[in-house]
Amino acid sequence: MHLDILFSTVYIWSFLFKKQMLLLKGGIHIRQLTLRSAEGSSKYWICRIDEEHLSRIDEQKILSIANAESNAVKSVKAEDKVLFFTPLSNEKSISFIGYGPVEETFNDPEYLLDSLKSGRKIKLKGIKYFTEPIPVKDIANDLKFIKDKENLPYPFKSEFKEINEEDFNYITRKMNSSKTFPVYFEKMSFTMDEFLIGSIKGTYEIVKNTEESNQIEIKEFIWLLHKFVNSYGISKSYEDILEYYAQNIWKLGFKHSPSRNPDNLVKLYGPRGNSQRFGYIKLV
Fold it and tell me: 265 — phi, psi (to 5°)?
């Protein structure tokens, strides 16, 4: 009887010991996974892009920098996020202009340009541009990676620099973004912006004075606007014109109304990136 009790006690303790070890191993495994997950999480970077390089980057989606010895660039990996800044020549200020996720990194000794000598290349999945540049001076007080608020250019002397996720999210959510190449980087950029705004106003006045109805479908208006713009030799697709209208129409104060037909609806944006779907432009 005593032996039975002893064997039972040993069996129970053995069972509990094995269970405890399994739980311990499981905990270690979970901690290992957590550490791996933390190690494998995305990093966030800022990268300087000169205006004359942006059209090539937009086409190729490949980044490189002048400093061939940069350790920061060597640390970039897939799924990291890169935020672009540039010293805008027409504003004489450093501004954020867009961002993109990293698809892959690779080594290629061939220079992309004579001034970009780094063999480390970064391939982007795509680029989203801010509809208007974001001057650093306007948001410097809210960015943690800018330690000295009185010396704003200092953190931007490096071509490539890691920043924290909080700063990255603050900047990218500050302004509405678009996949199309921004108007402010077009050739004669602000002249182009004025031309498009003027074309919208002109088309609106023509339609208002000739249309019998008190409203017109937004998509039909964009079709007329597209023909008008391209008649001046400006190569813009229907989609480009539609997106420009959607992003900038708040500047003109046009009135819009909804549509019961979901196919007619177009998402229009306000100055802070808020959006609402409409189907018609009111001709008032």
Answer: -75, 140
Helix ranges (DSSP H) in 80-162: 136-139
pLDDT of residue 146: 93
Residues 6 or more apart in contact with residue 13 via CB below 8 angstroms = none
Neighbours of 172 (CB within 10 A): 18
Give yes or no for a contact between 54 and 86, defined as CB atoms under 8 angstroms apart. yes
List average pLDDT for each run of 10 residues in the chain, which is 284 residues long.
42 45 43 40 91 82 81 90 83 84 87 67 91 90 92 86 95 81 58 84 93 94 92 82 91 92 92 87 92
Contacting residues for 51 by C-beta, under 8 A, at least 6 apart: 86, 88, 89, 185
Beta-carbon contacts of residue 165 (< 8 Å; ≥ 6 apart) = 42, 44
Q: What is the DSSP letter of 181?
A: P
The predicted-structure confidence for 212-261, as pLDDT tens digits, reads as follows 899 999 999 999 999 988 887 777 889 989 999 998 898 898 999 999 99
Residue 82 CB coordination number (10 Å): 22
Which residue do the tokens 């450093």 mark?
94
Rounded CA separation 50/254 (Å): 36
- Residue 182 is given by DSSP the state P
Report d(CA 277, CA 265) in Å as an integer. Answer: 6
- Residue corresponding to tokens 């490949």: 62
* AA identity, residue 69: E
User: Using N-to-C axis directions, what is the helix angle for 189-210 and 238-248, rounded to 10°?
Assistant: 90
Which phi and psi angles does 160 have, rounded to 5°? -140, 130
- For the record, the structure tokens of 115 come out as 């001034």
Tokens of 283: 């001709």
- For residues 44 and 21, what is the distance between their CA atoms, to the nearest angstrom? 39
Q: What is the pTM of this model?
A: 0.54
